[in-house]
């Protein structure tokens, strides 16, 4: 029972100490710099610890097991790159810019091409809807473009 009271008192003291700290918005530039350096230090230590962990894991493996692990990693990477190539090829075949390739979904090149064609049709619809209005008030219905001076003359006449 007395242990619970001691623990509760310690928690109350910690809470009071936390409540007296200034809000994060009022932290000085020097304090922010110190915190950033400390955070960077922790990230560096974490990377080193992860590398050491991998070394220790690999130390217990035979050459065959290490090679199989590397093979699995490389096979996964090749598959990822092939999917990216398939997406870009499908986007290109459908007439889409390369920036749209990441939005395509499908597991086979055929599915990707089908999705790319559907997206190209939708993008084409959006471009048609977004065409700027004509400012010639219907006077220029032909295929020949007018220069700005002829538009001004026509406007002055009437």
Description:
By secondary structure, the chain is an all-alpha fold. It has helices spanning 2-19, 29-59, 63-93, 109-129, 148-157. It has a domain at 52-127. Helices cover 70% and strands 0% of the residues. The protein is flat and about 90 Å long.
Structural class call reads mainly alpha
* Element pattern in H and E: HHHHH
Q: What distance separates the N and C termini?
A: 99 Å
Question: Using only CA atoms, what is the Rg?
Answer: 33 Å
Low-confidence stretches: 1-12, 14-18
Number of strands: 0
Shape: flat
Number of helices: 5
Helices and strands in order:
Elements: H1 2-19, H2 29-59, H3 63-93, H4 109-129, H5 148-157
Helix pairs in contact: 3-4
Key words describing this protein structure:
5 helices; mainly alpha; 158 residues
Short description:
This protein is an all-alpha fold and 158 residues long.
């Amino acid at each position: 029972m007395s242990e619970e009271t001691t623990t509760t008192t310690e928690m109350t003291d910690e809470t009071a100490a936390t409540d007296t700290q200034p809000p994060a918005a009022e932290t000085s530039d020097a304090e922010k710099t110190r915190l950033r350096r400390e955070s960077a230090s922790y990230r560096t230590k974490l990377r080193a610890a992860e590398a050491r962990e991998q070394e220790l894991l690999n130390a217990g493996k035979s050459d065959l097991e290490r090679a199989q692990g590397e093979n699995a990693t490389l096979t996964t990477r090749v598959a990822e790159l092939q999917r990216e190539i398939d997406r870009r090829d499908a986007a290109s075949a459908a007439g889409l810019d390369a920036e749209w390739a990441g939005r395509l979904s499908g597991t086979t090149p055929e599915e990707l091409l089908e999705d790319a064609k559907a997206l190209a049709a939708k993008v084409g619809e959006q471009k048609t809807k977004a065409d700027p209005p004509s400012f010639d008030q219907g006077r220029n219905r032909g295929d020949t473009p007018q220069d700005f001076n002829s538009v001004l003359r026509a406007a002055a006449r009437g």
